[in-house]
Specification:
Distance between the termini: 11 Å
Bound molecules: phosphoenolpyruvate
Low-confidence stretches: none
Strand content: 15-25%
Strand order of the largest sheet: 1-2-3-4-5-6-7-8
Largest sheet: 8 strands, parallel, barrel
Number of strands: 8
Helix content: 25-40%
Mean pLDDT: 96
Length: 255
C-alpha cells in the first residue's frame, strides 16, 4: 500500500499575535481540498498551539517545533514531549538546523527523539549538511547525524518517525541555491542505506521528506523525480495559497 505523503509547515517564530495565527490557520484549512493521500501538519510557535487546537478541522494536524527530553521538573523554559501530547499535539520537529546552530547536539536530539516516541509523538528529525564540498565529506556529516540521532532507538519505532533532509545551504532567504530533486533522491537513498545497515533490512522504513525553499513551482520535481515522501516547508507554510498548492501537488501524485 502506498504510504501517505506528509507536508509539514514550520511557522518558526511567526506570526506575532494569536489572532494572526488563527487567521493563517483557518485560511489554510479553508483552502485545502479533502485529502486522501496526504497528511498536513502545521507547527506554530508553542504559545498558539492551544488556541489552534480548538479550531475544528480534520485536514490539519498540529506539531511543535521542539520538545525537551526531561519529563518534568527543574528545566526552566523547556516544554516536555508529554506536555505537548496532553495538549493534543501529534508531531514534533527535532534537530532543526536553526536549533543545531544554537548548540543542540546529535546527542541532545537523540534524547529528545526517545522522549517524543515515549510520549506517543511522531518525531520529524532534521538532518542536513551546512555546505557541499567537492570531496563529498557532506555525506559523512549526514551519516553521523543519522547514526547518532537514532542511536538506541528500538527497531520497531524507526518507521514511526519522519526524517527531513534539509541541506542548510538551501534553506531560507540566504539559501545559496535550490537543491535539485536528484540531490534529494541521492541523499534519501543514502539515508535508507545507513538505516538498514544499522537496524537491518527487514524493518519498516521511515518516510524521508525534503525541506529547503520548497514552493509551488519546485514541489512536483521533488515528488516525481526526487521521490520525496513529502516536505518540510518554512516560508511557504505562512502563505495559504502557496502551501495549498504544495499540498495539492502531493495529493495528485500517484506512483
Ligand atoms: C526550514 O527552515 O526548515 C525551511 C525549509 O525553510 P524554507 O522553506 O523557508 O527554506
Amino acid at each position: 500500500m502506498q504510504r501517505k505523503k506528509i507536508i509539514v509547515g514550520n511557522w518558526k517564530m511567526n506570526p506575532l499575535s494569536s489572532s494572526e495565527a488563527e487567521k493563517i490557520f483557518v485560511n489554510v484549512a479553508k483552502k485545502l481540498p479533502t485529502l486522501k493521500n496526504t497528511e498536513v501538519v502545521i507547527c506554530p510557535p508553542f504559545v498558539f498551539l492551544d488556541k489552534l487546537k480548538k479550531i475544528r478541522t480534520t485536514k490539519i494536524r498540529l506539531g511543535a517545533q521542539n520538545a525537551f527530553y526531561g519529563e518534568k521538573g527543574a528545566f526552566t523554559g523547556e516544554i516536555s514531549a508529554e506536555m505537548l501530547e496532553l495538549l493534543g499535539v501529534k508531531y514534533v520537529i527535532l534537530g532543526h538546523s536553526e536549533r543545531r546552530a544554537m548548540g543542540e547536539s546529535n546527542q541532545d536530539i537523540n534524547k529528545k527523539i526517545k522522549a517524543a516516541l515515549f510520549a506517543g509523538l511522531v518525531p520529524i528529525v532534521c538532518v542536513g549538511e551546512s555546505e557541499r564540498d567537492e570531496s563529498h565529506k557532506f555525506f559523512n556529516v549526514v551519516k553521523m547525524q543519522i547514526e547518532e540521532c537514532l542511536a538506541g532507538i528500538p527497531k520497531n519505532l524507526i518507521s514511526k518517525m519522519i526524517i527531513a533532509y534539509e541541506p542548510v545551504w538551501a534553506i531560507g532567504r540566504n539559501a545559496v541555491r535550490e537543491a535539485t530533486p536528484e540531490e534529494f533522491r541521492e541523499m534519501s537513498i543514502f539515508t535508507l542505506k545507513i538505516i538498514s545497515k544499522k537496524f537491518g533490512t527487514k524493518i519498516k522504513m521511515p518516510r524521508i521528506i525534503y525541506g529547503g525553499s520548497v514552493d509551488e513551482k519546485n514541489a512536483s520535481g521533488f515528488i516525481r523525480e526526487g521521490e520525496a515522501d513529502g516536505f518540510l516547508a518554512g516560508r511557504a507554510s505562512l502563505n495559504g495559497d502557496i502551501f495549498t498548492e504544495i499540498v495539492k501537488t502531493c495529493e495528485a501524485y500517484e506512483n
